[in-house]
Amino acid sequence: MTRDKSERHGQTATESDVTHRLESVLDLTGFQRDVLLVIVDSDETWPSGAAITRSFERIWHTEINRSRVYQNLDKLQEQGFVTTYPIDGRTKGYSLTDHGENAMLAYRRWMLSCLSNDHADATASGT
């Protein structure tokens, strides 16, 4: 993923910008966040909905309802997290927008902060 535009231009994002990005990704369902991660993790530049579904099936070792994937991709596009690119007449490829990347980066920072705090607390208590 790329860094925030302001960070790429030598400026740091304000705390309220980061908070807004984190709040926007926390408003998503867990499945929607997983969809964003699968898109980022894809070997394809513009993975199709079918490729995203296959990735979930490979990761979760179970069949995934394709309509569930497509409905969530549509919601993520409406909310500005993903964009589409026509691959052929019917097939669309998906990629994260700058908003989607920045929101996931904020989410990653928050998760790492939580994990490092838990680790520090566990280490301090001897567990």
TrEMBL record:
InterPro entries: Tscrpt_reg_PadR_N, WH-like_DNA-bd_sf, WH_DNA-bd_sf. Residues 48-104 form the Transcription regulator PadR N-terminal domain. This is Transcriptional regulator, PadR-like family. It comes from Halomicrobium mukohataei (strain ATCC 700874 / DSM 12286 / JCM 9738 / NCIMB 13541) (Haloarcula mukohataei). The lineage of its organism: Archaea, Methanobacteriati, Methanobacteriota, Stenosarchaea group, Halobacteria.
